[in-house]
Amino acid sequence: MPPPKDVVKIAIQMVGAIPQLIELQQTKPLASVLKDVCDTWSLPNAERYALQYADGRQTYITESNRRDIKNGSILRLTTSPDQEAERLYIGIQSKNVDVKTDSLKKLASLSQDVTFAQEFISRNGLKQIYSIVEEGNDAGEMLAHTLKAFTELMEHDFVSWENLSTVFIKKIVSYVNMNAVDASIQQLSLSILENMVPTSRLLFEVVKKEVTLDRLLTHLQATNAQLQLKAMALLIALLLSAADTERRDMMDHLRQKNIRQFIHKNIIHSSEPLGDEMAHYLYVLQSVSLNLCEHRMKMSMDPYSQEQRDLLQSLRQTAFESESEAPAGTFSTERRRSLCAKEFRKLGFMNNSNPAEDLRRAPPGLLALDNMVYFSRNTPNAYSRFVLENSSREDKHECPFARSSIQLTLILCEILHIGEPCSETAQAFYPMFFGQDHFFEELFCICIQLVNKTWKEMRATQEDFDKVMQVVREQITRTLSLKPTSLELFKTRVNALNYSEILKLRQTERLHQEETLAVPVLELREKLKPELLELIRQQRLLHLCEGTLFRKISSRRRQDKLWYCRLSPNHKVLHYGDVEEGVQSPPIESLPEKIPVADMKMLLVGKECPHTKEKSSGKQNKDVLELAFSIVHDVEEYCLNFIAPTRYEFCLWTDGLNVLLGKEMTSERTQTDLDVLLSMELKLRLLDLENINIPDDPPPIPKPPSNLNFCYDFSHAEQ
């Protein structure tokens, strides 16, 4: 008979004593439980003791978290958090170097626990840590433990970062700016400054002033991957916290220092694999850089701005230079206005008498004008060829340069998500972005020539404009999905993907859909589905057995601790636990926490999850909502919360958990995988029926024969 839900069977250890096996009554006060445990071992003063997990993070057991204790958990009787906090508070003030070092090391470990942290901070323990750093007498291992303890204590948000003294901040900054400092201390110092920057405008300005971009670039060039990562994290924090003007100035400075080329060569194409965190920072850097275009994208053309009118006129003068060189007195004002209107019409403006009207739509606004001017100035031959080639075509077949440029700019803005806030977890960046200055403009130059090429291949007329731009969008998105490493490679691939190739791809995709429309094939599909769904279920469970590395996301920072979760090979227990950075696939024995599958009650996703309700509901967290899921176990109050690293992992895990719960797999990936498997299986089964029409109705069954005398009797042959 299973024990009641408010009773858990656990083991309690103590150094030098035989472990106790007890049934913990969850309704019984924790102080009474401790009294019973201490009495068994004849220990006085039970209030000086506490229970904590023996494995994993060794969290203290309190009234608030005791319900997380599972059957079979191993606890340890240890000094209570207040006693331990008092001991370490005294220990870190000791004159004995060994005692002080050991105390700081223990403090760095225990500070991860919220109960201990609260006790230590309540004793004004942070003030002692400030003193150790500000006095600057300690270095090496002792200082590293001090900074680690400070980071962990501040992580609990009991104390505001704004309370830090100027002396303390400058000391942390000095560790970043000095060369002869241990790398571990520099990493911790960079991490502290990264956490400090988003909390207030004042701290942002202090860090920005004290830690120069050039110094961060020096750390980025370090061979130490962790130091490189922390430097990138601080750089991103500064960029995200800066005002628009400051951000633009910072990006200009970074561009002058060739940061893109350095990242392209030494980080993206490094011999070491790119970690998830660095991939996210590169995505943010790309997003911040591209979003510098947002201001021009949202600004309509002002017909009264002389600067903007000059840019517009430069397009006409560059394209029709010889015609515009006629002396001013040659034509009357009316004749000159008529000539200009004609030239603007040849350029492809819809409103040739007042082309500024074409650029009043925002987006793409003035960004389209900037792109056209960049194309005309940096590739004048290609620009002139585009315009003059289309000027000589019949009116209905000419490709309108200006109209195409405006629409293409809008398409590129949508594809590259310009003007959208950075995702908190995304890692999708384009390697070629970091290999090229003026990436957006250069990409436009390639794609506007692609528009002209596709226009000719399609033999398009003005009525086909939207159709052509739709094909161009498809060419660009299909090529970008291949993640070309340079713009040259992008240019080669996008030009190879001509209109006929797009038609072939569309035809193939259409055939994949149409081949299943015949009634007999539909019936065959339905018969195959159960078998293939079972195959998908097995694949999902196998993926859960392999496990996945998840990242906890706190309300204040994008990244926090790493943890790993995997299903036992017998599919009966989920094992999970915290892991260090760089651990790929920890053995199941190293994951201390577990949830029996039998105790799982429900799967929650998106907004239903408790950890998403705690977060703000801004646009930045939309992607987190799409990746969040929780397992409800035992009773509804207890949840194991996940945020998947990718949408793919989200689909596989939610499907696998639904299989364990005996429910249908509901993710979009299930349907995609099922369609692929059905398509492959149908192709194999219908291989012999190629070019044979399958009738909608089965052929009639012939009448049975009048007699069965043609049946051979094998019994005679055996004799």
TrEMBL record:
MF-aspect GO terms: SH3 domain binding
Keyword Cytoplasm tagged: no
Keywords attached to this entry: Apoptosis, Phagocytosis, SH3-binding
SUPFAM superfamilies assigned: ARM repeat, PH domain-like
GO biological process: actin filament organization; apoptotic process; cell motility; phagocytosis
Entry-linked PROSITE patterns: ELMO
All residue ranges annotated as the ELMO domain in the record: 307-480
Keyword Acetylation: no
Matches recorded under PANTHER family: ENGULFMENT AND CELL MOTILITY, ENGULFMENT AND CELL MOTILITY PROTEIN 3
Protein purpose: Involved in cytoskeletal rearrangements required for phagocytosis of apoptotic cells and cell motility. Acts in association with DOCK1 and CRK. Was initially proposed to be required in complex with DOCK1 to activate Rac Rho small GTPases. May enhance the guanine nucleotide exchange factor (GEF) activity of DOCK1.
Entry protein name: ELMO3 protein
Species assigned in the record: Promerops cafer (Cape sugarbird)
Name of the coding gene: Elmo3
